[in-house]
Amino acid sequence: MQDTSQVVRKLLAILAIIIGLFMIIIAPILVQISLDRVLASLVEVSKERPQYGSGIALFALFYPLWRAIGFVAGVALIAIAPMIYRGKAWTYHVSLAAYAVPSISGMFMFLPYVSWVEGFPIPMILMWVGLLGFWAMVFLRKAERVTKMAEFLVYTFVGMLATHSFVIGIGAQRMLMTRPGQPLFNGAEWWILTMVGEIDWIGALMLYVSIPLMALRKPFGWWLALVATLAILLIDAPTQLVRMATLDYALGTLLAISTLVLLLIPKLKQQFIVERSDAQPANV
Description:
It is a single chain. By secondary structure, the chain is an all-alpha fold. The chain folds into two domains: about 1-140, no CATH class; about 145-284, no CATH class. It has ten helices and no strands. The radius of gyration is 20 Å and the shape is globular.
């Protein structure tokens, strides 16, 4: 970051403060409004489709949880803003980790609007605010063009796969909570749900952690993303074959394949696996 001009560093620092304040003050209100709309819609939907009733407890848990994580990430952005202005290299991967929170959580909270919630999808505001900060850090700092493009492509697909995998985990738990024949698991279509949800959640966590590690140019970060992507691919693909009622697992499979391809392209791969003695991002 020291090589980045003072004007750009100032802009990035101001942006960190603005987005940090947004995540502390405005985002919690938007999340609560969204949660109320989602729960109200689920109550109505579950009257005709009782299997959706389990979503009430799940969304009531995970919306506030993501809100709390986002609050802490907002505090982190404000705290490190002076260090961003000073050009401290470590602020790059820390800020990416913080900006990834509203990006991922906003996309997760937006998805119910696709299925059963009417009106403007409020969580999209969180998602785009997070992506604004994330992409600003990637593109505005001084770095090689190939480095910026590699990070943009890989981080974006890693984030999308992490989000979708987290949503898959929610869906699996929702269906298991309302499965017929409880407490038994009657047949392969229910057995596989006891695996896919947890594996996708573990993969989502690994993918999130891999972002700041890849920004540090730690080979472990690239390998972490690779293993998580492979694990998601190897569980989503067979799950789709077993459960043909939805295409959610097919989408997860396609996202995993796309992410895997990007991770393995030699020109992109070399941007993340070169271990540096100072453990800092390239040209930062």
